[in-house]
Design goal:
alpha+beta; five-stranded mixed β-sheet; 7 strands
Length: 202
């Protein structure tokens, strides 16, 4: 399915489209942008459909979060707090896939604070579960959008495909966990992942 942009821009009628007039140039440019956007959606959907079965093993929450935050560091205008209690919290999961979940949630929080703000990442034990929350002080999510925010291809971003949160949601579901969200318009949002706790020796 992939490679749509390459195929369509090479399509004979489009390739031979005269580019002499500004109108033709603008029309061709618009079509090429739309084809490129469609290609990104197709590629993302393919990746979404090919998510492998999680290979479960003990994953240290603190280390995993720190690695994700180092790679996806918020911009200078965003204050970051990380709190893990107890420090040796461990979940049963696929380390690579959980890193994808956490990275998507960090990027989502960052994008919600274009003017800066605060991102608080916390992980706490809840009996047999571990709750990992990403709380931002951003723009918040409108009440009519909130019920759909984890759905595939649903995006409030002008350039977004709408798969980041749905991929995170699906990965968590495959880990027999939950991903929930609460939000107040103008005050921020909190995404919380709950996963099965385990001992590091499990």
């Amino acid at each position: 399915m992939g490679g749509a942009s390459g195929r369509l821009t090479a399509w004979p009628p489009l390739a031979k489209w005269p580019a002499a007039s500004p109108t033709n140039c603008a029309s061709r440019s618009t079509i090429e942008r739309q084809v490129a956007a469609a290609d990104r959606v197709i590629t993302a959907l393919n990746d979404f459909a090919r998510l492998p079965i999680p290979q479960l093993e003990p994953v240290g929450v603190d280390t995993c979060l720190r690695e994700v935050l180092e790679i996806n560091a918020p911009p200078p205008g965003v204050e970051l707090d990380l709190f893990v209690n107890p420090p040796d919290l461990c979940v049963l999961g696929d380390r690579t896939q959980l890193a994808i979940v956490f990275a998507n949630l960090v990027r989502n929080a960052r994008d919600a604070m274009p003017e800066g703000g605060r991102l608080r990442v916390t992980a706490v034990g809840e009996g047999e579960l571990v709750a990992i929350s990403f709380e931002d002080s951003g723009v918040g999510i409108p009440p009519d959008v909130l019920p759909h925010i984890l759905e595939p291809l649903y995006s409030t971003k002008a350039k977004g495909i709408g798969l980041g949160l749905s991929i995170a949601h699906d990965i968590v579901r495959r880990h027999h966990g939950t991903l929930t969200v609460t939000s107040q318009l103008g005050k921020g949002s909190t995404f919380t992942v709950r996963l099965n706790a385990c001992d590091r020796s499990s």
